[in-house]
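Table S2 (continued). Query chain:
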Amino acid sequence: MNVPNAISVARIAACPAISYLALSPGVASRYAAFVLFVVAALSDVWDGHLARKHGWITDTGKLLDPVADKLLLASTFIPFYFITRRPGAVGEIPWWGAMPVWVLVVVFGRELFMTLFRGYAARRGVVIAAGKSGKYKALMQNLFIGGLLLWYPIMSSAADRGWSGGIWNAWRHFNSAWVGLMLAVAVGLTVFSMGDYLWRYRTLVRDHA
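Corresponding output:
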């Protein structure tokens, strides 16, 4: 158990806490969910950097890292689905309303498909490394998640304290546009990245056919 692997384990352990805090009605808990998610997301970059810099890349790390990433995705998107169906407009996703079921199908369907496809490729002696499109997809997903986790407590704080004025309105419109746009881009890149992997490894698909 080296440092990068320990970081991945910590990220896995943080996932239930993020879900719990995000689903909690308290404003402080929701701010905590945002902070904890940011730390977990940044730890993904940090452990990868340490593993490459110090040669700490292990088979255990190759297993833990994608598991941690998928659990972090599930620990936020699934709570979002339930939060957006609570009474009141605060829970809705800007521009989107309630989290559409088809978005969950696309996001998690892609993850399941790529897991199976990587397993199939490995059995044929081919290692499918993370490509740029997959990394951009993960980045956009994290930007959306972070934006929405911050949107909820800020909107609650604004309602409780009666925030108004030009600065608040500018921030509200910016955060609203950020969340709505990032989800759209993330969904688009989710589909594109899967197609990109299939195209780059199309010989495997032809051989299977």
